[in-house]
């Protein structure tokens, strides 16, 4: 009987210890998560931030609400660099819509209404296209948006053809329309079609950042040649694909660089190829310049997700941010409203899928620390939280460690020697 009592006491002691340990573990988990949220609230100032992306909507679909806060500090300088032309996600059907609109405006003369030919041919006047389009958004003027899109197309075409003569441009547009209509289903488009699609993607990205007053001088389109429509794309080449990124790093001298940190064989292969090129450029930049306190922010979007344990920044997202993203995406990224590569996760547009993911991430956190942590907080940003962005903030040394498998792969393939 005495032994039974001793065993029962021992069992109760073990249970009590486990209960205490469980409370302590839960407390540590909650503190860790709150630290990640606080890191997302402590936004940087006096920084030069280079936002890099494989495609022209990757940043928007990963952390667009964060940009709202970063640009509000006038001491921050934000730059956006797109590594590829992104042409494969623009359908022939959408390109035909824009070409036919341009064709009609050229024939009717509407394109030149209130604007001289010389101004339309001047690349330095391209800001006028952007401001005109954004004003048309404000007026809810669909025809005005179409007009300024056609003006941007005309501006790019006259530079491409080295001629501003309307008959020559009309003839070229007619020929391109005929070429697209004659393409067999699934056939690789000719180079001019790829070029047109690149112009569309670049135009859309510039419109997005113009919402924040950031003009084309803040946006860089590298069109790295490793990006093709081949089934098995090439790995990045040092001189061709890495050096342009290195030159941009040396010109901007960023204190923060954002990168799409997707694992290999997840989502579009372009993301991982881009990571190969960016990491190689950063490695050479750090070797040459030895920057102090350089930070790398890793992000993911609709193609792959971070686990909460992998990140150290959780940025709260409000319903207002959802609304801004939805409006911006529907008015600026029109080519992506019927994208060629929809997600298996959600039957809708990419911005809606991004919102769905951010809400799920917030619910994961709220389930661990309680929704009252947000709803009863003294911080207004937390009280209005309905979504959460996940980011991985790293020193350069930590980035090297995080991409060590990538470094081994690069070493094995030796595409960057």
Topology of helices and strands:
Layout: H1 2-41, E1 48-53, H2 58-70, E2 77-82, H3 92-108, H4 117-121, H5 127-139, H6 142-161, H7 166-182, H8 191-210, E3 219-221, H9 238-252, E4 256-260, H10 269-289, E5 295-299, E6 313-317, H11 319-332, H12 350-369, H13 372-375, H14 380-383, E7 387-395, H15 396-402, H16 404-413
Parallel strand pairs: 1-2, 1-4, 2-3, 4-5
Antiparallel strand pairs: 5-7, 6-7
Helix pairs in contact: 2-11, 3-6, 3-7, 5-6, 5-8, 6-8, 9-10
Reported for the largest beta sheet, the result is: 7 strands, mixed
Strand order of the largest sheet: 3-2-1-4-5-7-6
Average pLDDT reading = 88
Rounded to the nearest angstrom, the radius of gyration is 25 Å
The end-to-end distance, rounded to whole angstroms, is 77 Å
Percent of sequence in beta strands: 5-15%
For the secondary structure, the number of strands is 7
Order of helices and strands: HEHEHHHHHHEHEHEEHHHHEHH
Seen as an oligomer or otherwise, the chain set is single chain
- Parts with pLDDT < 50 across at least 5 consecutive residues: none
Coarse morphology: globular
Helix content: 55-70%
Q: By helix and strand content, what is the structural category?
A: alpha/beta
Q: What is the tally of helical segments?
A: 16
């Amino acid at each position: 009987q005495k032994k039974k009592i001793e065993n029962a006491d021992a069992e109760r002691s073990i249970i009590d210890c486990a209960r205490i340990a469980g409370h302590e573990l839960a407390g540590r988990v909650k503190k860790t998560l709150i630290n990640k949220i606080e890191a997302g609230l402590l936004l940087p100032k006096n920084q030069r931030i280079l936002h890099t992306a494989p495609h022209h909507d990757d940043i928007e679909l990963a952390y667009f609400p964060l940009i709202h806060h970063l640009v509000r500090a006038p001491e921050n300088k934000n730059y956006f660099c797109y590594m590829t032309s992104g042409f494969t996600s623009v359908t022939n059907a959408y390109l035909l819509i824009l070409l036919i609109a341009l064709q009609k405006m050229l024939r009717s003369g509407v394109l030149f209404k209130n604007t001289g030919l010389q101004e339309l041919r001047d690349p330095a006047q391209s800001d006028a296209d952007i401001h005109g389009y954004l004003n048309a958004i404000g007026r809810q003027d669909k025809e005005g948006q179409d007009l300024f899109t056609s003006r941007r197309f005309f501006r790019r075409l006259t530079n491409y053809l080295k001629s501003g003569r309307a008959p020559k441009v009309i003839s070229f547009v007619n020929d391109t329309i005929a070429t697209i209509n004659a393409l067999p289903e699934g056939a690789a488009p000719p180079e001019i079609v790829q070029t047109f699609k690149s112009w569309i993607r670049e135009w859309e990205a510039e419109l997005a950042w113009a919402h924040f007053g950031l003009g084309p001088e803040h946006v860089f389109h590298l069109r790295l040649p490793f990006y093709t429509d081949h089934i098995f794309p090439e790995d990045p080449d040092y001189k061709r694909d890495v050096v342009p990124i290195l030159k941009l790093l040396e010109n901007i001298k960023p204190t923060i660089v954002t990168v799409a940190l997707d694992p290999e064989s997840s989502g579009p292969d372009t993301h991982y190829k881009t990571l190969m090129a960016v990491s190689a450029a950063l490695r050479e930049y750090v070797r040459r310049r030895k920057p102090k306190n350089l930070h790398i922010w890793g992000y993911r979007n609709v193609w792959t997700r971070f686990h909460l344990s992998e990140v150290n920044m959780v940025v709260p997202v409000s319903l207002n941010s959802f609304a801004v993203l939805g409006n911006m995406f529907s008015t600026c990224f029109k080519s992506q409203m019927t994208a060629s590569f929809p997600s298996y996760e959600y039957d809708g547009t990419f911005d809606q899928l991004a919102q769905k993911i951010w809400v799920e991430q917030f619910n994961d956190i709220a389930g661990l620390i309680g929704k009252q942590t947000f709803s009863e907080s003294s911080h207004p940003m937390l009280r209005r939280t309905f979504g959460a962005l996940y980011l991985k903030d790293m020193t350069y040394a930590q980035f090297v460690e995080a991409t060590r498998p990538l470094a081994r792969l690069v070493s094995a393939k030796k595409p960057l020697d």
